Amino acid sequence: MNDLFDNFGRIEKSDPEFHEIFKNFAFDEVFDYSSLTEKESVLVILACLIACQSPKAFHKILISALDNYVTPREVKELLYQSVPYVGFGRAHNFFGVVIKVFDNNGVKMPLDNGATVTTENRYKSGREIQERYFGAEMIQMMNDSAPEGQQHFNRFLEGYCFGDFYTRYGLNDQQRELITFTFIATLGGCENQLRGHIQGNLSVGNDKEKLISAITVMLPYIGFPRSLNAVAIVNEICE
User: Fold this and answer.
1) What's the DSSP call for residue 239?
2) Which phi and psi angles does 66 have, rounded to 5°?
3) HSE-up of 90 (CA within 13 Å, CB side)?
4) Among 49, 81, 52, 84, which Cα is nearest to 65's?
5) Please, what is the end-to-end C-alpha distance for the chain in angstroms?
6) CA distances from 9 to 12, 61, 122, 148 (A)
7) Is 192 helix (H, G, I), strand (E, B) or coil?
8) How far apart are CA 168 and CA 77, in angstroms?
9) What is the pLDDT of residue 9?
10) Which of 36, 125, 173, 234 is the most buried (most CB within 10 A)?
């Protein structure tokens, strides 16, 4: 997948020494230790760069990845999925990057609507997904134990996070949970949420090997401390 690094020409010209080191590691060596498909690898890298706040690197990799590895619909859904996890403040700049790349590649916008829920059923649909991923008893326990005046956070999770976003078409359950794991691991400092979504990944069929592979692919972008922290939590939950 060295072609993903084809658009980093400025670094190659100004600092060929670093370019060679990083390219050999991030776009060659790490893939020897990953079982992800090419599409999964690209989704993980793009998700990681959103959470890292790296719009320039995101832009350059998206140029190479679009149509070769991911479709416009998948990119749009990746971007939408990022908002409830990294927040719109972090995701905002990437909407502009995606619009620019789509426009330059002749992608007609806006894309068709990807929603599958209505205002009336978004909470019900979101709750169903929560229960499928994490278990009905766990979700009920979480809701029952919410302190007075804080129940609305669980309500937001149900209707906004899972109802508005997870129900959209364009990415399947495995892809959505894999990139969600990537967002949270990249952010760091969200260990309890990472534990929850490791369990969510296992529930939808993403096994330990896939999660370790995702960390392997994102390591060049997030560094060793957050990567090894994520590895430790995966080991904790899976064992």
Assistant:
1) -
2) -60, 125
3) 20
4) 49
5) 32
6) 5, 12, 45, 55
7) helix
8) 8
9) 66
10) 234
State the residue for tokens 């169903």: 128
Amino acid at 37: T
Amino acid identity of 84? P
Which residue, among 170, 167, 218, 168, has the nearest Cα to 194 in the 3D structure?
A: 218
Indicate the pTM of the whole model.
0.96
Torsion sign over Cα 159, 126, 118, 182: positive
- Tell me the pLDDT tens digit for each residue of 46-80: 999 999 999 999 999 999 999 899 999 999 999 99
Q: How many CB atoms lie within 10 A of CB 71?
A: 14
How crowded is the C-beta side of 170, counted as CA atoms within 13 Å?
23
Tally of CB atoms within 10 A around 203 = 15
- The amino acid sitting at 239 is E
Determine phi and psi for 170, rounding to 5 degrees.
125, -30
Token duo for residue 200:
């969510």
